[in-house]
Amino acid sequence: MRLLPRVVAPSLLALWITHAPLHPLDGLSAASASPPTLEMQAQLRKGFQAAQAGLFGSAELQLTASIAQWEQTRQPADELAALYKTRGIVRLERGQPERALSDFSRALQLSPSADAAEVQRTYQLRARAHQLLGNVREQADDLSDAIRRLDALDAIEATNPYLYAERAAARMRLQEWDGAAEDALQAEAEFGVIGDKIRKLLASADAALALYGAGDVAAAVEKMKFVFKSKGIPASNNPDDIGLLQALARKDAELHLAYAAELYSTGAGASVAEEQWTSGCIRLEAYVQDAVARRGEELALRAAEAKADETGQAVRLRASSVSDPFGTLTPNTDFNAALNGLDPKSPYVTQRPQQGFFWYKTSEGEVERRDRGVALAEVDESLSCRQFRSADWLRANRPEWATSLVNKVVSYSSDVPQKPIVMPRSDRSESADRLRRQLGIPTEPFFTPLNKEGLPLKNTE
């Protein structure tokens, strides 16, 4: 039995070390190589533990040393491929996609016929490196290679909507509309199967644009209406879902702009189209304001925590939405959280995203497994619906919008002038909302002002 650093990576940080029998590959014979020494194994374990702890600089150094040792002692190719793949993951985390790409390519070269699941994941990882480098064609090709290997996996692993969602996005950028629509619809269906309502709606929004590009305007419009009607359904108290909900808010807002242009092109009238355009403008402005405020608050909280760490006082601060302004009289104090079986540092208590919280241990003495979650949206504060009135801006920044849709938006924009964006005023204070949430009192009305199609109600309705 040899020590094999297996890297199972549905996300970039799902790493652990396990034991498994090996087979020689690519002319490197396991029989001809001496087993790794205890020192080599200790070096390797340090690399994996550093990666698991988020110390990616240290992890890269340790893994690089292990790779050199494995090559010098002619260890089996599949072990060496696993090391290259792991270092590639670390380099992606360090913002080095070009170097990560080299590692993933080397891993595939070393073990092209290894375990189908490992090869499939490596193609997906390399596709993400290509995405970061702007190599859209290569990204789509790697995703296709990964998808072709799904049939060789078991039923659970073969259900991978992420692959289809990523390839749909790549194909839209390549203007391969038919394939993009097929992928987005497949992703939508599979996200529904696994119960991920937020990502299902994100795939629905992508499907609407892809269907539009494919020329099936009627189906695209139906998908738009489905998103409008369903966007309020996903609910989550996991702060790592905030980034996904922000993406859904942006796509919903932009689909309202697209729908306005489509309505105008069909002769629905300027007033009807402008109603949708205005709704999209307000939603987009709300998305920008929320994203800027959330990111600013999170950066301030991290800075305050770092300052506290310098004095030896490790603290985990709460987001303002769940702060305890009344001290011990606040319903959701750390003490009450503990009484209810919740760790006060849990993201469900602090409502802080990307905390890498230790949810459980694999075994005593082992490093805990963690998932950093989805990052908060980074937005340009100048983003608004006014930019969507420019064909040049749309072509440069929204390649997923088909030329036919861009032309309709430009036609609407030339005929219907942009009015000032007037944001609705809330009749409640933020502090009052925070207290209502802590008491379990709803902060939103039970009935929303939307009709069956998810469109704003008229006064007569």
TrEMBL record:
InterPro entries: TPR-like_helical_dom_sf, TPR_rpt. Keywords: Signal, TPR repeat. TPR repeats lie at residues 81-114. Residues 1-27 form the signal peptide. This is Tetratricopeptide repeat protein. It comes from Prymnesium parvum (Toxic golden alga). The lineage of its organism: Eukaryota, Haptista, Haptophyta, Prymnesiophyceae, Prymnesiales.
